[in-house]
Inverse folding.
């Protein structure tokens, strides 16, 4: 993987480059930047697969820089001296959050996860291109999605998915057959894709197929009851949106 290092302190850049070169042979450092303006230029010229990003920097934070980009088709590993940003980092779908001074073992583990995610993403893109080519103008009920587990890539018809449940950077797909598939991607990666096929985001951790909903239960909280008996919580902040979507 091609990697870009971004940190406003040159000593941190040098140390990180040495650690990566010595202990992470699957990574090739293609550039380093001490500010986000230089980072944007290097991003366009090198198109890295992985970015090691500091958070607190002059002029613009690492978070703000990511939000300013039109595309973030690379994996992200935050490297920072502060531990209070972990939740924000995970919301930006970061692979990991490393504290300075960087542990060799934690760095290697983060790079392994980034490499796995990068490989799955490449495979999914190739399969997705093939799927669109083969399926042509099929109806939404016939559309399939490529789901890459650790052992295989499954082509699953979207109308066979009853719900999705997230746990950190992983999503479990529950199928009408009773089978479940664990995918190494966060749930919001699939949110926009599946909404166009009638899925409802009723909770931060849950995405439900409208066709699988049997009723709305109010008993010490709000729940969607599915045709298979599963009860999925509705968060307070999602109630109005869920009502609107179910009425359409």
């Amino acid at each position: 993987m091609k990697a870009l290092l971004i940190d406003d302190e040159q000593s941190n850049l040098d140390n990180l480059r040495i650690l990566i070169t010595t202990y992470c042979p699957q990574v090739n450092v293609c550039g380093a930047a001490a500010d986000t303006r230089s980072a944007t230029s290097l991003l366009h010229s090198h198109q890295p697969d992985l970015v090691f990003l500091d958070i607190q920097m002059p002029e613009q934070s690492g978070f703000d820089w990511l939000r300013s980009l039109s595309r973030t088709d690379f994996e992200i590993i935050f490297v920072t001296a502060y531990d209070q940003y972990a939740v924000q980092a995970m919301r930006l779908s970061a692979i990991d959050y490393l504290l300075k001074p960087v542990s060799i073992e934690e760095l290697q583990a983060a790079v392994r996860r980034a490499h796995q995610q990068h490989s799955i993403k490449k495979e999914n893109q190739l399969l997705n291109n093939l799927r669109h080519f083969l399926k042509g103008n099929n109806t939404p009920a016939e559309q399939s999605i490529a789901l890459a587990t650790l052992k295989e890539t499954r082509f699953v018809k979207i109308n066979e998915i009853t719900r999705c449940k997230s746990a950190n950077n992983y999503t479990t797909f529950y199928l009408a057959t009773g089978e479940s598939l664990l995918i190494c991607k966060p749930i919001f990666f699939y949110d926009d894709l599946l909404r166009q096929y009638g899925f409802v985001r009723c909770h931060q951790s849950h995405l439900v197929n409208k066709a699988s909903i049997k009723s709305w239960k109010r008993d010490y909280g709000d729940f969607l009851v599915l045709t298979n008996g599963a009860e999925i919580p509705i968060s307070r902040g999602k109630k109005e949106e869920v009502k609107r979507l179910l009425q359409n």
Q: What stands out?
A: The mean pLDDT is 85. The helical segments are 10-23, 36-46, 62-68, 86-91, 104-135, 188-195, 239-247. The CA atoms of residues 38 and 44 lie 10 Å apart.
